[in-house]
Amino acid sequence: MADVRLDSVSKYFGDFAAVQPTSTTFPEGTVTVLLGPSGCGKTTIMRMIVGLERPTTGRVFFGDEDVTKISTKKRKIGMVFQYPVIYKGTSVAKNLELPLVAAKMPDADRKKRVGEIAEIIGISSLLDTNVDRLDNAGRQKVAVAREVARQPEVLLFDEPITNVDLTSKLELKRALKTLFTELQQTIIYVTHDQTEAMSLADNIALMSAGRIVQFDSPRAIYNNPDDVFAGWFLGSPGMNFLQKCFVVEGSSLVSPLLADTLPVSQQAQHAVTMAIRPEQVQASLTEQPGFVQANVRNKAITIGGRFLLDLSVQDITFKAVVDHGIGKEAASSMWVRLPERSLHLFDAKERKIESGLGTGSR
Amino acid sequence: MDQVKNPQSSTVLALSDVTRAYGKTAVLRGVSMSVQAGDFYVVTGPPSSGKSVLLRLVLGLEEANSGSITIHGNDVSSEGPQGRNIGYVPQSFALFPNKTVRENITYPMRLDKTDKQTVQDTLSRVCELLTIGDLLDKRPGQLSGGQKQRVAIARGLAKQTDFFVLDDPLVGLDFKLRERLIDDLKRTRSALGVTFLYSTSDTLESLLLASRVGVLANGLVVEEGDLSQVYDTPQAAESMRSLGFPESNFLEGSTRSGRCSTPLGEFAISDGVADGQVLVGLRPEHILVGQTIEGNVSVPAKVLFTEDVGGSEILYLDVDGTSLSTVLGADHPQLKEIQSGSTTLSIAPESFVLFDPKKLTRIAQGARRG
Questions:
Q1: Do A303 and B312 count as a contact with CB atoms less than 8 A apart?
Q2: Which residue in A20, A56, A214, B78 has its CB near the most CB atoms, within 10 A?
Q3: Biggest CA pair distance of chain A
Q4: Residue B251 sits in a domain of what CATH number?
């Protein structure tokens, strides 16, 4: 097992920077998910780690070993792809054993390891089954188990649960979660699905336009996005980004969205965007101290029966996710509060500002 | 063609006992439904429940075997597509590769011989609504998937009519793109003041878009109504299943002397229910976790797996071999402890909805008494 380190790694196709110079470490024994929209460069980073793509600049390390010029075959990696790679016409057990036989592992050790991995991933009862008889989810479990059983230094997953139906997706997600928790392997996992990333990752490397824009635990990114993109990409829907709806005067922030003037830091002067997650907007059907009146422009039902409301205060529009009862009763207007600790400020470059909001500091 | 509108009625579309079969396979077995002016009417239901066929009948692309279809009060059952004056956004967005975005969008209006000024006005309006004004001189090959979809929607909407049919236009698009197009579609419908008939089998999409829903199952519209009414008091098991995310839990139950027993426990039920087998529906959000409440059904459960969907956390649970899902706010105070393994569930009796196990229609609900 080893960590994976990128040292100023970039990849250009002609003038196009698929991956801009990037230095980062995928820590040993943890799951890092490369997350981002299509075309953000996540697959290219993965391909450079695997050795299928040579970086234009920089070096790739597995632990202390510089593997930049080492071929894919000689890098100690395991890979799971979108489509399960299996040896057809043979049993599940054979599929798992073949690489171990090739590596001349003693019989007893081999049997033991296959048994253990099959147990964790939930295919023990299928060991004698012909893989041809399995559905896609079952085959993908076999493909995963075989790569895991080889005990590579680094395990890479490229959108492994994209091509299955919803029920199988859940089943695979659960199997992977169990596996990742038990294994403590160095795992790098590529996906564009935020739920998958949030549910499986120890850390998310969030990518946009060839750059890792934030590298942190899922909750940390969700709660404290470093930039507008992170706040938008994570969440369903993402953050509200509100512009031209507040002024910072000295150390005070004033907005028609807020009942009170809020103390802010010096840096807050550079703020052009104020943001809040829809589910952090507090709502009430009656007037309350600290709340401002908002018009209800649209109602919809969302996850868990909560209501997603389109609201406006003056001509500022934003979304709020509220409890079913409140959403159902909401008529043309209601009362809302944007709690200080849930507000974020971003500058003209869409980067986070240390606003001092919600900390009581000035 | 201009339709003569019946001023008495705001009913845009009405289907009465419409059937359609292919050989011996009945796809629609007597569909009745009505769409009112200004509705964002979503036809939902499981995949291959006949949603696309229903839309094709409305559009006049296929003919019904029996029953009637009226648009603005006029029977169009024997009219071809041209006579129905419906705007159409198909599922697969075939844009003309050699034409510019402008030509793609205005092409159907040119076929309709719409006058120049109207074409220009309509073009600017749909472009503004779908924010594609800067793409007009590009060709489809130069557009991203999301841009193509917006152009296709714009083309469907650029028709001089007040009634549009949209056949699952967001299927296969990634999540963030769909989020944006859902907003675009809602805003567009309300800005144009028109009526949408829309099909999808995606639960969240139905919930986010619909003002009214029609639930299609087994070749019938088993229920139609305002979204929140159908959501809160589903009259058919399929309505409860296809409207709600995460999906509702369904359990086998049996009723006896005014009580219902399920794998989760027993509770009283509303009066007049005969003894026998029932299907019991339970919305995930009605399962409270990590607390016990007097008068509720309480049962210990194992947490198998949790899914983080940002603002909320979906929990997959096991109660003695019965699988359940529930959902908690990501800010739930006990989330960490709950995720770690075992917990207690608490369910208000009135959250249980009882359906006839064969007809799958609502027969009763749980009640709060001894």
A1: yes
A2: A214
A3: 75
A4: 2.40.50.100
B190 and B297 assigned to the same domain: no
User: What is the signed CA dihedral for B39, B40, B43, B44, rounded to 10 degrees?
Assistant: -130
- Domain chopping of chain A, boundaries: 4-229, 236-353
The CATH number of whichever domain residue B178 belongs to comes to 3.40.50.300
Quote the ipTM score.
0.90
Closest residue, chain B, to A231 (C-alpha)? B310
Q: Name the residue range of residue B187's domain.
A: 11-235
Option in B307, B329, B331 nearest A195 (CB): B307
* pLDDT attached to residue B275: 95
Tell me if B232 and A192 make a contact (CB, 8 A cut-off). Answer: no
Taking the domain A236-353, which CATH number applies? 2.40.50.140
The architecture in CATH of the region A4-229 reads: 3-Layer(aba) Sandwich (3.40)
Going by pLDDT thresholds of 50, 70 and 90, the confidence category of residue A362 is: very low
- Nearest CB to B207; choose among A198, A300, A321: A300
In a domain, B2, yes or no: no
Residue B370 has pLDDT above 60, yes or no: no
Residues of B with CB under 8 A from a CB of A: 174-176, 179, 186, 190, 204, 207-210, 227-228, 231-232, 243-246, 283-285, 304-312, 316, 327, 329-331
Q: CB of A224 within 8 Å of any CB in chain B? A: no
List pLDDT tens digits, range B307-327. 999 889 999 999 999 999 999
List the 17-76 stretch of A: residues with Cβ below 8 A of B.
37-38
Give the total number of structural domains in chain B.
2
In this prediction, residue B9 carries a pLDDT of 56
Q: Indicate whether B203 and B266 sit together in one domain.
A: no
Average pLDDT over residues A44-62: 96
Q: What is the largest CA-CA distance in chain B?
A: 73
Is B152 part of a structural domain of the chain?
Answer: yes
* The model's pTM: 0.91
- Kindly identify which residue of chain B lies nearest to residue A281, measuring between CA atoms: B311
Pick from A192, A236, A308: CB nearest B310: A236
> Which residue among B227, B307, B310 sits closest to A301, beta carbon to beta carbon?
B227
Co-location of B291 and B314 in the same domain = yes
Inter-chain residue contact B228 with A218, CB threshold 8 Å: no
Q: Do B232 and A328 touch (CB under 8 A)?
A: yes
With contact defined as beta carbons under 8 Å apart, do A93 and A128 qualify?
yes
Chain B CB within 8 Å of residue A277 CB: yes
Structural contact between residues A232 and A219, judged by C-beta atoms closer than 8 angstroms = no
- Contact A174/B245, CB-based, under 8 Å? no
Per-residue pLDDT at B341: 84
- Decide if B309 and A303 are in contact by the 8 Å CB cutoff: yes
B303: in domain: yes
The answer to whether position B240 is within a domain reads no
| Percentage of chain A exceeding pLDDT 70 | 99
Do A301 and B208 count as a contact with CB atoms less than 8 A apart? yes
Q: What is the mean pLDDT of residues A309-329?
A: 96
pLDDT band at A93 (very low <50, low <70, confident <90, very high): very high
pLDDT for res A268: 94
**Domain boundary pick from B183, B216, B235:** B235
B272: amino acid identity, one letter: G
Structure tokens that stand for A288 in this block: 């309350």
